[in-house]
Specification:
The protein is α+β, with helices and mostly antiparallel strands. It has 21 helices and ten strands. Strands 5-6-4-3-8-7 form a six-stranded mixed beta sheet. α17 runs antiparallel to α18. The radius of gyration is 30 Å and the shape is elongated.
């Protein structure tokens, strides 16, 4: 090293610390190498407090270590702060050459609030609550109780009774055995109240509300109100809504199922899916029901789902899911969060003007929560159109040819937090669905002319008039 330094290939940036990097790269390199620096220069120290939970420097670029003295070492882009405290315990693990506070010990350390500290040594209480709630969600009550038992032992050994009392109160609130006043975050309070919600899903819903409130959405009235129009449009809505979900019939087969009540022997359950959907959306009285409260939202949703999938007892119609469901890379709301997230969604729903905007929010809420084992897409679109029927607006149909546009717009919000594509896609669908369905042969020919029955890779939808 002396020869390298004499040759100008390295230079000292702090006691016992050298670099060969250009000046402008040093600070970032030091921050990224904090484990190497700490393990090489301070081998007997313990990574503790917020650093033991986050394993990165704090927002102020500070790493916290516990040792037998209080001191600070400053480097370009990094400060290492030593806090006087107990030696490592047998279950404090060794990671990347460093001893690190175990999770139970680190949680107790993060309940130490020292107003005199130059920089915050602990993560916010809301973050601690989120982590504990996640343990409860992922591993259940037993895991949280085992964690509490170990923190009790550590607190007794190290004399951290006050810290344990605060942690014990937080865990008790999450388990419903202590007052919800012991926790501060909205997620933890909801868990303590017995109805936790998914904050990530709520964030996406709020993004959609922001987009809806910034748009002047048109009022697209349903100018045709004849029984034939309602019945025929309900048929095509049922046909295409099931087609999107993979329940595919030729149009002639679907006509026999719905209009003649002729159930094919080879696919009776699939046929009942179309018929169940049609029975709901063709009933004007049913479709005028909209939820005025969170409880009513859950009740209407479960009743419609039970009616729609009555022929599929294996799908537990009307009952919320018990296992996590997914579509591709998208993981939907955890079963424990379903009711709470629906309730939070209704709070947002109440602040959106009735009409297409509220319909879009309702559809995305149900689609995003995915509350049932099966039929979530269909029930989401039913709930959307009920909002429109209640306002005497034209209902929305998503034909086969438009399937990818619709699904991609949903993914844009779910995965990339972009709400505009979804609002644009639904607005376009609302406009091209505003047709007169009274004459069945005539509307069938018109939908065929407009490419509604084609796969998305075969044709594009035609929306202009002759």
């Amino acid at each position: 090293m002396a020869r390298l330094r004499e040759d100008g290939r390295i230079r000292q940036i702090a006691p016992r610390l050298y670099t060969s990097l250009p000046e402008e790269e040093v600070a970032a390199a030091v921050r990224g190498s904090w484990t190497t620096i700490a393990s090489a220069l301070f081998p007997g120290a313990l990574v503790s407090h917020r650093t033991a939970l986050e394993y990165v420097p704090s927002p102020e670029a500070v790493v916290f270590l516990t040792s037998r003295t209080n001191r600070r070492h400053s480097y370009p882009g990094l400060t290492i702060e030593f806090i006087r405290g107990p030696d490592p315990l047998p279950d404090d693990p060794l990671l990347m050459g460093l001893r690190v506070s175990s999770l139970p010990r680190a949680l107790l350390e993060n309940f130490k609030r020292d107003a005199r500290a130059a920089t915050p040594r602990t993560i916010p209480l809301e973050e601690i609550e989120r982590r504990l709630e996640q343990i409860l969600l992922d591993d259940g009550e037993d895991a949280l109780n085992r964690l509490r038992d170990r923190t009790r032992e550590i607190a007794a050994q190290l004399g951290w009774r006050a810290e344990f009392d605060r942690l014990d109160g937080t865990i008790g609130a999450l388990l419903g055995t202590r007052s919800a006043e012991r926790v501060t975050s909205a997620v933890a309070r909801a868990r303590a109240a017995g109805e936790p919600f998914d904050p990530a899903c709520l964030e996406r819903l709020q993004i959609l509300v922001g987009e809806l409130r910034s748009r002047a959405l048109p009022v697209l009235r349903d100018s045709v109100g004849s029984p034939a129009h309602v019945k025929n449009k309900a048929f095509f809505e049922s046909y295409f809504s099931n087609d999107i979900e993979g329940t595919v019939f030729e149009i002639e087969e679907a006509e026999e199922i719905v209009f003649a009540k002729k159930i094919p022997t080879r696919r009776p359950v699939d046929a009942h899916d179309i018929l169940g959907t049609f029975n709901i959306v063709s009933d004007p009285n049913e479709m005028r029901r909209v939820p005025s409260s969170p409880d009513e939202l859950i009740r209407i949703l479960q009743e419609r789902h039970r009616a729609m999938l009555a022929a599929r007892p294996d799908k537990t119609p009307g009952a919320f899911k018990q296992r996590v469901n997914r579509a591709g890379d998208t993981v939907f709301v955890h079963p424990d969060y379903v009711a709470g997230t629906l309730r939070k969604g209704h709070e947002l729903y109440a602040h959106v003007e009735p009409g297409l905007g509220r319909a879009a929010l309702m559809m995305f809420l149900i689609s995003e929560v995915h509350p049932f084992v099966d039929g979530n897409g269909r029930i989401a679109r039913i709930m959307m159109n009920a909002e429109l029927v209640a306002q005497r607006l034209s209902t929305v149909i998503i034909p086969t040819v438009y399937r990818e546009d619709y699904l991609l717009s949903l993914r844009a919000l779910t995965r990339r937090h972009r709400a505009k594509p979804l609002v644009d896609a639904l607005l376009r669908a609302a406009r091209f669905s505003q047709l007169d369905f009274s004459d069945y042969p005539q509307i069938l020919a018109e939908l065929e002319r407009r490419n509604w029955f084609h796969e998305p890779d075969e044709a594009a939808i035609i929306v202009d008039d002759r």
